[in-house]
């Protein structure tokens, strides 16, 4: 019998579905909630079934490895275009009561949004930060090596998003590995992460065309969206200006390296504010530039041995920022990592970085670069090797998402098949060479630009 504290939240369907946090569900190791037709996983409506997924038999030291076997043996397996923990929503790219209507949004560069679009995006984020999720609860733990150490708490929709990243980004006990970084799953995990929060905000607000714009950080040496019109200016102490709505945001899931803790002190009565000191770290005092991007996109190997932070000549490692170009201006990191280090505050601590809303527009651009590379390397494949940490192997289930999808399931799913595309910035990049520009199809009068030509 597991000792488990359940925080009851009325009308919660329940990243752990509420129905799956009951003592009975944990004892039975079953997470197959009833859909509105009264059957588990919507089985009576042919939406899905309750099934035991095939998995490698493991007894992990850290219960986050081999997701979700420490918690559940039986989970929903969704059919056709259905998705979600109870097969009650549509796969990305589809909408309608039976998920038969195509749905596509176009992610713009954030400074290309008009005033109304920008305000709507920011106000929806603020709404998500201050409204409790009616679908999920978060797990906390004092030690991820103790399998009976589970407590569940309600959380706002945005703080649920923070928790997802904390859960996957915190290093496993006694290792340097996690489920979302330093390995081949890195860009795909974050792609799913953005799709998750887009869906949850759409469900919260009723705005089905809500999307996360991207921030092209190659256009300026310094943060051009660290202003009150966007994510808030900062004072010399790193605090966000009081005129910005984000000055009122407080962090959830504080950084705590001890005992592999997950989401330490979620009910802290005096949580810390978001902080930034952009460019104040002399080893990360500028943002990645066009040369860094072109060097990354020009790398042919998706990932290389040993499939971690030491990989070299690897697109994934360069994109993540571990494989630093020789002309990297003597910086300690590049690309994705450099942006985190440059912001020098909440964003620079990996497990807690998603507390800063800049995180999502940063990762939307990382996702755009992933798509550019994939479109130019259609013969590439997700790597297979025993060197890859078991949580990031192609056949491992991506943690901690429902329904279960393997890391390599997303390899051949381009953005259009997942319901979104990227619109290139309306202004040509100031660093583009004439030979590196191309006009893309996208409607009358839309001159679009991309970083590179594909050779194929």
TrEMBL record:
Query: Which InterPro entries does the annotation name?
Result: Di-copper_centre_dom_sf (IPR008922), Tyrosinase/Hemocyanin (IPR050316), Tyrosinase_Cu-bd (IPR002227)
Region Disordered: which residues? 266-310
Q: What is its main location?
A: membrane
Keyword presence, Cell division:
no
Membrane topology term reads: Single-pass type I membrane protein
Subcellular localization(s) per the UniProt record = Melanosome membrane
For this UniProt entry, what's an example GO CC term?
A: melanosome membrane
Q: What range(s) does the Tyrosinase copper-binding domain occupy?
A: 181-198, 356-367
The UniProt keyword set, sorted, is: Melanin biosynthesis, Metal-binding
Metal-binding found in the keyword field: yes
**What is one Gene Ontology biological process annotated in the Swiss-Prot or TrEMBL record?**
melanin biosynthetic process
Which Pfam family, just one, is annotated for this protein? Tyrosinase
Similarity annotation: Belongs to the tyrosinase family.
Question: Which PANTHER family does this chain map to?
Answer: TYROSINASE FAMILY MEMBER, TYROSINASE-LIKE
Protein name listed in UniProt = Tyrosinase-like
Q: Which organism is it from?
A: Seriola dumerili (Greater amberjack)
């Amino acid at each position: 019998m597991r000792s488990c504290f359940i925080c009851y939240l009325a009308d919660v369907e329940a990243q752990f579905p509420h129905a799956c946090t009951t003592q009975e569900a944990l004892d039975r190791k079953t997470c197959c909630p009833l859909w509105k037709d009264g059957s588990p996983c919507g089985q009576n409506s042919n939406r899905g079934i309750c099934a035991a997924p095939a998995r490698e038999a493991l007894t992990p030291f850290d219960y986050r490895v081999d997701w979700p076997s420490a918690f559940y043996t039986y989970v929903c397996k969704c059919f056709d275009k259905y998705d979600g923990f109870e097969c009650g929503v549509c796969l990305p790219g589809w909408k309608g009561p039976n998920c038969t209507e195509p749905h596509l949004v176009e992610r713009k560069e954030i400074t290309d949004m008009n005033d109304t679009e920008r305000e709507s995006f920011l106000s929806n984020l603020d709404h998500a930060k201050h409204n409790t999720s009616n679908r999920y609860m978060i797990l906390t733990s004092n030690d991820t090596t103790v399998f009976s150490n589970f407590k569940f708490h309600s959380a706002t929709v945005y703080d649920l998003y923070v928790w997802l990243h904390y859960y996957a980004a915190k290093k496993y006990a006694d290792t340097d590995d996690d489920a979302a970084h330093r390995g081949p799953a890195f860009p795909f995990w974050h792609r799913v992460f953005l799709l998750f929060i887009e869906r949850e905000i759409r469900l919260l607000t009723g705005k089905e065309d809500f999307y996360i714009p991207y921030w092209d950080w190659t256009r300026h040496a310094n943060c051009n969206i660290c202003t009150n019109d966007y994510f808030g200016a900062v004072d010399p102490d790193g605090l966000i200006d009081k005129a910005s709505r984000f000055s009122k945001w407080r962090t959830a899931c504080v950084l705590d390296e001890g005992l592999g803790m997950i989401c330490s002190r979620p009910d802290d009565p005096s949580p810390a504010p978001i902080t930034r000191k952009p460019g104040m770290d002399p080893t990360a005092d500028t943002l990645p530039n066009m040369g860094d991007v072109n060097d990354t996109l020009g790398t042919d190997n998706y990932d290389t041995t040993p499939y971690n932070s030491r990989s070299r000549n690897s697109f994934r490692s360069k994109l993540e920022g571990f494989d630093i170009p020789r002309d990297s201006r003597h910086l300690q990191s590049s690309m994705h990592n450099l942006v985190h280090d440059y912001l020098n505050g909440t964003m620079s601590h990996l497990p807690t970085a998603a507390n800063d809303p800049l995180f999502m527009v940063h990762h939307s651009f990382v996702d755009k670069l992933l798509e550019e590379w994939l479109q130019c390397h259609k013969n590439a494949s997700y790597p297979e090797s025993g060197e890859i940490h078991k949580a990031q192997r192609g056949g491992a289930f991506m943690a901690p998402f429902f329904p279960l999808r393997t890391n390599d399931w997303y390899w051949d799913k381009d953005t259009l098949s997942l319901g979104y595309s990227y619109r290139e910035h309306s202004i040509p990049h100031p660093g583009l060479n004439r030979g590196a520009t191309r006009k893309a199809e996208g409607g009358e009068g839309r001159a679009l630009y991309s970083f590179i030509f594909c050779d194929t």
